[in-house]
From TrEMBL:
InterPro entries: TrcR (IPR010421)
Protein's organism: Gemmobacter denitrificans
Protein name: Cell cycle transcriptional regulator TrcR
Comp. bias regions, Basic and acidic residues: 215-225
Pfam families membership: TrcR
Region named Disordered: 214-251
Compositionally biased spans, kind Acidic residues: 242-251
Amino acid sequence: MSKPLMSKATAVWLVDNTTLSFRQIADFCGMHELEVQGIADGDVATGVKGFDPIANNQLDAIEIERGQKDPLYRLKLKFNAAAVGEEKRRGPRYTPLSKRQDRPAAILWLVKFHPELSDGAIGKLVGTTKPTIASIRERTHWNIQNIAPIDPVALGLCRQSELDTAVQAAARKRAAEGGVMSDDERRKLVSTEQSLGMDADEARVPGALAGLEAFTRRDEEEKSSPADYSDADSFFNLPHGDDDDEDDEDN
């Protein structure tokens, strides 16, 4: 589905001037629903002036009326004959001058919270080079002490849909390679035998716990065959002697 011109500015106008749902605006502008919600909350596209799609012959007013009456209705972009056969320009992502100083913070956020992403994927999302990513990953960047991790979607460097697609692709690639995912990435535990590449039969108790295991086994054996304490003398461990000797000592 083709997107309207100045899609983010169009989304700003639709949020401010209509009662369309976030999902309807996101589908029409080719954005993520959370990104549209960020525009409504003032966290995304701050300072962007709204772009009227009706005045610019991209959307009919009747489409907005239908969308406001039916939350499941999807807005239809007006046909533009000039856009037929237009190909997307290939090349590196362009980052405006006003946002280029925010790229290190976005790179640090991606490296910290999405370590499965490769340098190439981060470069496509943020529009930076691999040496810059490597310097931040290895903490050799000249300004690393003053860089705080910030979500690139909140900075306006990429869309939430693009970030989700890159993370899912990286997870599928890592799963296909047979790598063991961490608990935060997979949300499930991996057994020690699997993480160490061992068979279940090869798992042994560490040497430091061998003594504890022997002590536990001996204690269980003693419990299984308790001593006979039916006799009071054996219970108190009293010395055995003749009664006459005891009487002589008392005298």
